[in-house]
Amino acid sequence: MNKVCAIVMLILALVIGRITFDNNDDNLNVARGILCEKALLSGDLQTFKAQNNRISNQHLKFANFDYINIKKAILTKQYDSATVESEIAKVADFGQRAVLWALLATNEYKKGNINKYNNYIVRSYSDIKSENPVVAEQYCYEIVENLVNLDEKLPQEHAVDFVQIPYYSNTQVLHILGMGGKRFCVQKISRLLNDKQFVAENKRFVRYMQRAVFISKIKDASDADINRWFLYSAIEFSMTWKIRNWNNYKLPLLAYACYVGGDLERYKFYRDKSVSAQQLKDMSASYFGYVEYAAKIFCLTNDTKLAQKLLGTLPDGHPKNLVIKNLLRFFEPIPTTLIEN
Amino acid sequence: MLPSQHNFYLGLLLMFLESILCTWGLSGTDNIFSYFISLNAILIYCVTAYSKESSNLLLHRFLKYVLFFLIIICFIQYFNYNIKIDTFEGYTDLKYVDFVKWLPTSVLGEYYKGNALKSLFEIGATIGIAIASLTMFCNQKALRCVLIFLGVNTALMGIYAIIQDELDFPIIYNYFYTTASFYGSFPLSNAAGAFLNIGCAINFSLAVGMLKKRKFFFSVLWFSFALICSVSSYMSQSEGARLFCIFFWLIVLPLSFYKVVSKFYSKTTATISILMAAFLVGLVAYLFINSNAETLVKKYENVAKNLNESASSRFFMYKLSSDIISKNPIFGSGGKSCQYLLTEEMIKSRDSNKGSLASSTYHAHSDPLEYLMEFGIVGAFFICLSMAFWIWNFYKSSPDFESWILFIGALICLLHSCFDMHLHILSTMIVFAVVASACLFTAPKQGTLK
Prior knowledge:
The complex is a heterodimer.
Chain A: H1 2-20, H2 26-42, H3 45-54, H4 65-75, H5 81-90, H6 94-111, H7 114-130, H8 133-148, H9 153-162, H10 170-178, H11 183-194, H12 196-201, H13 203-216, H14 223-229, H15 251-260, H16 264-274, H17 277-282, H18 287-300, H19 304-312, H20 318-327
Helix pairs in contact in A: 2-3, 2-4, 2-20, 4-6, 6-7, 6-8, 8-9, 9-11, 10-13, 11-13, 15-16, 15-18, 18-19, 18-20
Chain B: H1 5-24, H2 31-49, H3 58-79, E1 83-87, E2 92-96, E3 107-108, H4 116-136, H5 140-167, H6 189-212, H7 216-235, H8 239-264, H9 267-291, H10 293-327, H11 338-349, H12 367-396, H13 401-417, H14 426-438
Parallel strand pairs in B: 1-3
Antiparallel strand pairs in B: 1-2
Helix pairs in contact in B: 1-2, 1-5, 1-14, 2-4, 3-4, 3-12, 4-14, 5-6, 5-7, 6-7, 6-8, 6-13, 6-14, 7-8, 8-9, 8-13, 10-11, 10-12, 13-14
């Protein structure tokens, strides 16, 4: 029996060796799915086919063709107003439906149909609220980005409502802080902060909203003020207390705040400090977390090459795949080289 | 003796390699290191499984059956899963599927995250190395060599951890994907503390062995190694490791005192003197605490607060764990299922109205409870029986003082694991298995040298 057990364990070791050294996992498969979606939207069928074929888990193969077709039609404004509503209503996923309603709403807003805009945005809000807040998260941020980019009062005010729907995540923090650069968002946030009932009921948002308001005036703030406002903020981004120079963990966040606030000189200063060799060495206690957080910020500040460079410092493997999955949506366009391995 | 010198040296060489891997391989938390540590343990097991020599110990024979049943149960668990882990863009989901209800079941996650197969590989490797140690350690030379190598490695790890903590020495391999409190080469400070406590027992046992042989220099050297391990364990951020380190010395030092006095005088004198010493130390401690009460309260206020916080979060996890156990009490919920099920329960139990953050955990922070959760009453029965046979074999081996020290070290590790999870951390599991096996053989009459 002893010898049989030894042989079984040895065979098991060989099988597991094959699994252990195979870097492919579901996080990479999901990342490929995101790439497929982006490729379909941009009409790049070659990339779509290549990536979809490489998804090893059959359940994760790309299948949202209806959603993508409607989305593409709305984005390119090649849809029939009479039929698109019924087509959206057929989409089963609440989150996807909410995104489509929001895209339709932004189109109508651009046309000046405020009534229709209001109607669609309410449908979008209703659908996203029907979804589990965890599942709704990715769709919520897509809607928020669309509304914020309209640079108009009503959509930006609605964006402030949408950003509060998901449960907490550090992406949510970045979106709230990002609103500091949007005039109408800041106005609405300031109003909310003056509402005692809102402050009492939404404590988790208040501190980020206060920072968003500060960011709107960051050009006039001193360095000491900036450091004071963001002293503990980086804790939300996988910071371990084992980092001795914990005070420097917030550097990418400071860079982001300055970028959002329009202070590009300071942005460059903090950005360069964030990726300096000394900083990367100091952050090694939570290196993967730091890279994910810094790269996410540099994607939002359109420094995607820097983000890619940072990602390149991570060794290939399952932890890197998770980081890639979490970051891929932030890249525009997505560099396919990220998931070539 | 093993059948041939080749087998013997090969086994010994692999044991040395295992000591290095366990000490410096990120405690087996990283998948690549975990693989090599387990693979090496299995190779050691294979080398000894094909040797002619075998131990007659009850534990040795029983562990072979345990491994056999573990293989069968884990394979059934793996194929008869009742929950499948689905990965999505921002979250993972637990998907309930049909399964054969009267058979062992598990949660099917990807291997690198943890599933029944990974559980079999790691626990199987630990049982394998325990069986191999019980065969190899019949040879006193092998036993000494392995203990010396392990002792040196644990002391080096202790030194490394102290330097790293005090002088801001770079982290081993330069990066982690963790927000946990790493210590030395371990990504978890409490596992590092437990590992160092075992190292302390090994080194102290070696020091006593050298003292018996009147090799004073080596005795002092091993004793200093034991002290380094203790200091390092004390400096780890784990309050549990600190407490159990103190507990170890509180048992071992009076025992040493008793041994020395009884050797030079008599057992009665030793008993009386130890009682008197205990009374005197108690009196001095009482007077000291009484006169410095305020200073001490201030000094240890934070420690008490930390312990209180840690205990409340642990009891919360224990409560949730017992709920999970009650759902599948006979065969358990499957190897490595704790991280999924307990995290699910923790997320469910949070108060979303207050906007409290979702917390997750990999372990129940109590090894007996976690093994009960994963392998049910059946698994717990095998574990309890193994422990019973271990204690029985130790009792029957008429242990000498060195064996007692190793036994106490292993026992303290076991007690500590009731409130922590280091017997789910591969390195600590393997070193525990080696030390628990070693304490059955240190008695000269069990060895082959005398």
